Amino acid sequence: MKDFSIIAAMDSRQGIGKGGLLPWRLSADMAHFKSVTTSSKSGQRNAVIMGRKTWESIPERFRPLPERLNIVLTHNTRYALPEGVLRGSSLQEVLSRVSQMADVDQVFVIGGAQVYKDAIMLAQCRILYLTVIHGLFECDAFFPEIPSDFKIISSEDPQSEQGTIFHFSLFSK
């Protein structure tokens, strides 16, 4: 099975969302997300794996996420998805399937909470791209504890946008 990365933004308590939405709006974080998840080898594209609720939280005009293979996890085999968007019933299943695709460079798990929790425990999860937002937001979804075998590789200087301070960190195992 192919190695994969997780990309997420979280507050100081590892909160990632409220009511199916991000509790903040940071254009620099969105640009970072797009840059990381679209940068691939020539002639290839990256895959983004997400749960159904994460898929639904993306505004319709931005779905599917362009320049990436979008994969939605759902047990509902009748759940309607646009042409070109893949469906899978489990993370293991879609990781196995995407490993067979010659045109896929990197694989990213992009949420939500349960998918992150399942993904971070797999041996194939090698890199965490985390946007750490300084401060606390009202959240009802949380990023899981980061296992001790992940070590911080880099942490950029904090930035500020609309009064919100945040920084990008990279972990690897």
Report on the structure:
- With 173 residues, the protein is an alpha/beta fold.
- The protein has a domain at 1-19 and 59-150: Dihydrofolate Reductase, subunit A (3-Layer(aba) Sandwich), CATH 3.40.430.10.
- Helix content is 20%, strand content 35%.
- It has four helices and eleven strands.
- The protein has helices spanning 27-38, 52-57, 91-99, 113-120, and strands at residues 4-10, 15-17, 45-51, 68-73, 86-88, 104-109, 125-133, 141-142, 151-155, 159-161, 164-172.
- The strands form two sheets. Strands 1, 3, 4, 5, 6, 7, 9, 10 and 11 form a nine-stranded mixed beta sheet that branches. Strands 2-8 form a two-stranded antiparallel sheet.
- The chain is globular.
- It starts with a strand and ends with a strand.
Describe the structure concisely.
The protein is α/β, with parallel strands linked by helices and about 170 residues long. About 20% of the residues lie in helices and about 35% in strands.
- End-to-end separation: 17 Å
- Unreliable segments (pLDDT under 50, ≥5 consecutive)? none
In CATH, the architecture of the domain at 1-19 and 59-150 is 3-Layer(aba) Sandwich
User: Over the alpha carbons, how many angstroms does the gyration radius reach?
Assistant: 15 Å
Q: What percentage of the residues does DSSP assign to strands (E)?
A: 25-35%
Shape: globular
Q: Major beta sheet, specifics?
A: 9 strands, mixed
Structure classification: alpha/beta
pLDDT averaged residue by residue: 96
Assembly annotation: single chain
Q: Could you state the CATH homologous superfamily of the domain at 1-19 and 59-150?
A: Dihydrofolate Reductase, subunit A
CATH class of the domain at 1-19 and 59-150: Alpha Beta
The name of the CATH topology of the domain at 1-19 and 59-150 is Dihydrofolate Reductase, subunit A
- In N-to-C order, the SSE pattern is EEHEHEEHEHEEEEE
> How many helices in DSSP terms?
4
